[in-house]
Amino acid sequence: MRLGAGSRVSREVHARFCERPGVRFPRPTLPIVGFEHRSDAEGFLGALRERLAKFNLELHPEKTRLIEFGRYAEQNRRERGLLKPETFNFLGLTHMCGRGRNGRFTVQRRTMRERMRAKLREVKAELRVRLHEPMVEVGKWLRSVVSGHQRYYGVTGNYRALSRFRYWVGRLWWRTLRRRSQKARMPWARMSGLVQRWLPPAHIYHSYASR
């Protein structure tokens, strides 16, 4: 759980707990709770710990943080001589305080490095399995991989990460094709044509709602 002090929400927070015996709980999640005032965040965190303790439960010490995040976080921390506001990961994206083109505060989101590296490792392993498959079939599969990645991570401000993922998928495919034959090395000039044909360019699918 990550509690962000500085986010603008209602002062009243209601939490509902299911206390019936025999209830199957879902997989662990990382909820994010935002408060305008730090005192409210600290009070909520203390109350939550007490509530969970009644059921012999506790918050994970390494996954529970109280961070300063929001419109005035950067300015407030600068006045105290501190570094930039902390970031947090949620749903595969790293969230950070930033500024839009108009200079106003915005929440910037980037693909988590760990998620991207893990996905590229999966692609690399699968390409080795498909080493001798027809190029058209591999191209169709990689197109679906890149397209699916973009449809999930294609949020406003994440264009560079999307382009980087597409680039490295193309490089991995190129290295795999060069393993097919020791005599006929495929030049990158020809490979770039395959990348343009099969790998869709970076595209933002999820933009911020109109204000």
Give me the number of helical elements: 6
Q: Work out the count of structural domains.
A: 2
Give me the side-by-side strand order of the main sheet.
2-1-3
Number of strands: 6
Mean pLDDT: 82
Distance between the termini: 29 Å
Largest sheet: 3 strands, parallel
| Percent helix | 40-55%
Write the H/E string, N to C. Answer: EEHEHEEEHHHH
Question: Which geometry do the CA atoms define?
Answer: elongated
Point out poorly predicted stretches. 5-17
Structural class: alpha/beta
Radius of gyration, in Å, reads 23 Å
Strand content: 5-15%
Walkthrough of the structure:
- It is a single chain.
- The chain has 2 domains: 2-67, no CATH class; 113-198, no CATH class.
- Helices cover 43% and strands 14% of the residues.
- It has 6 helices and 6 strands.
- It has helices spanning 38-53, 73-79, 113-129, 135-153, 159-178, 188-198; strands at 2-5, 32-35, 65-68, 88-90, 93-99, 105-111.
- Strand 4 and strand 5 (93-99) form a beta hairpin.
- The longest helix has 20 residues, at 159-178.
- Residues 5-17 have low confidence and may be disordered.
